[in-house]
Amino acid sequence: MIFKQLFDSASSTYTYLISSGIGREALIIDPVLDKTDEYIEILSKLNLKLVKVIDTHLHADHISGLSELKKRTKCITVMGEQTKAEIVNLKVKDNEIIKLEKLELKSLYTPGHTDDSYSFLMNDRVFTGDTLLINGTGRTDFQNGNPYEQYNSLFERLLKLKDETLIFPAHDYKGEKVSSIGNEKKLNPRLQVNSAQEYANIMNNLNLEDPKLMDIAIPANIKGVTN
What's the pTM value of the predicted model, to 2 decimals? Predict the structure, then answer.
């Protein structure tokens, strides 16, 4: 298997490139528009054909590369069925299987950060978007976010995966690249709660500023704007 974790320093976004390496088909998760040329170059160097590109949710802090990659590679764009994005070819449901040659990703509906947030489970790892971060969780105060739904997504879905399951989030702001379900259970301060209400109290009092590009990124990601 080919697996690359790429980073956009402007938005602290992690993008993932995956291929079984067998028939050279590839998939990208959470691409950033400004990094499109880099993705195309990597695909070319590795002799890979991009066939699917996934966004874990409608991003508010950067313009997605979904539309541009679709335009340049004719790949299939994938998001959860709740998304408002208009450029999505394949809208997946909870527990749906996305195939990439001999690799399979299972979609997990994990709302709370946004109402269209999905995680994607592949063998020993899970791509958690902004639902579960390393030593944190995604904010729940816009895009129909809901701390109670996020609590359920965390404690009834993600944290019930095997402890050794690797976590690859959509963002990290401190240079961390990977964690595990077991580590997050023990060390993530947001998860040391005894009830959904306690979790909601934490999330409802974060008092965070809106992402700087929010008013630009959300409409662009809905419409599939590439410039």
Answer: 0.96
